[in-house]
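Quick note —
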Amino acid sequence: MVIRVFIASSSGSVAIKKRQQDVVRFLEANRIDFEEVDITMLEEQRQWMYKNIPEERQPAQGNPLPPQIFNDDQYCGDYDCFFEAKESNTVFSFLGLKPRLASKELEP
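Predicted structure written out below.
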């Protein structure tokens, strides 16, 4: 299983850049293996990301914005979902990974 974080390296939005950095830093700090996929470099990656985000998670207007997070081909969520999981200490479940010892996810 590989966590894939779809990012936009050339985004002009400071908010998007900060959100992308937040996800990447968290994964690095927790030694979670992941792959960054830059949707600004390969059109086929961008189209794959758009196609594999469930319809109920698509925005009402426009395209989904990065970061978008997948575990292999399984959609995990966007930044807001990631942030909620981080705040509730359930990121490993959010990512479809086994919880680690310091996680609330181990509690009965």
